[in-house]
Amino acid sequence: MGFFDEQLPKEKVFRDPIHHYIVVDNQIILDLINTPEFQRLRRVKQLGTSALIFHGAEHSRFGHSLGVYEITRRMCNHFQRNYPSQDAGDGLWNDRERPVALCAALLHDLGHGPFSHTFEHIFHTDHETITQRLITSPETNINQILRRVSPDFPAQVASVIDHTYANPQVVQMISSQIDADRMDYLQRDAFYTGTNYGKFDLDRVLKVMRPVQNGIAFEIAGMHAVEDYILSRLQMYLQVYFHPVSRSLEVILAHQLKRAKWLYQHPNDYQPEFLPQLLMPFFNGRFSLEDYLTLDDGVLTTYFTHWRHASDDILADLADRFLNRRPFKSVLYDEAAAARLPKLRDLITTAGFNADYYTATNSSYKLPYDVYNPQAQTPQSQIELVQPNGELVELSQVSTLVASVAGKEAGDMRFFFPKEMLEQHQDIEIFQPIYDEFQSYLHNNHLI
Question: How far are the Cα atoms of 41, 109, 273, 290, 350 from residue 140, in angstroms, in the given order?
């Protein structure tokens, strides 16, 4: 039985604050949503530590995944209505691609773990690789449902996630410089953080989108809607995703996981009263898909709550700082000022902090728009506009606005340290000269 044979007699809807209604009209999609692997995404926050800065940002990867599916469904409907393929190789839309596009859209974030990017950094996991394993492993409910379409269908869906699927139109729907994934998370994250930066005219962008021979392009009449999307994305990165306090809390999160892992690997120092059974496969570097699926934000938060009372002072303090939102402070620095970082770390150590766990550097940069460079390690597909005569032109060639930001990284480098280094401690005057010397290197939130 194939995908098109399992249409629901009556469509079902999910109410959604971004798309109003998310429409499900196929049993395969509904069954995928109801799997334990997909339901786990309800327990993984979309924005991780950002919820500690933007208190409304409690939304989950479950809602985002539904949103990406809905945008992709609308793309398929638009393409089939307005650009249906008449002959093989004409570059138009073949609606037989709809099943793989919708399933890849729905499942694209399936492998995200708790506090995803921080967790990946500490335990050397990769959410895209795990997503593909969850789709292709015969042991998962996801795989068993996908195989109802055809035996090779799970591998096809996984190849979209891997960017190797034969049809570039389907790949670019899910992953390109203007795709369903980005269009949903910008709108969704803007809504839940209470910011306006990520809002753009989604309906207009979808309306001017069209399939072409080697992917997806946009009618030139919709250029300004595409420009708005590019700038919205830039602003969201600078104002929300790169927020210095969010990055500070990611540092604390990473350092407490690093400390817990170190303690586990040094049993003479480890306190067994809080043995984190569900994390031990990751401490050992040998975990199964089942081990991975047991983890979510709540599991880790429970361990953090235990660690607040650990005998190890560093682990207990870092857990307390994270749970009770006591972020590190940070200052901006450049390459010239970087030479002074070892001196600052020495002062922090002298003040009684372990610099390995109480300092960090973090560089966060994003290209607002990446002009295609075939020599790049992972070259981006460029955004192309369709001119009235049918010829394609690359966006930055006709948009002075996009040309002004194309290829230019936006972001900063920061040095993180305990807030105590900035305070006046009249009751511990022995440390005051250290604090004073430390502060002499800082001016207007910059390292000088």
Answer: 15, 16, 33, 9, 52
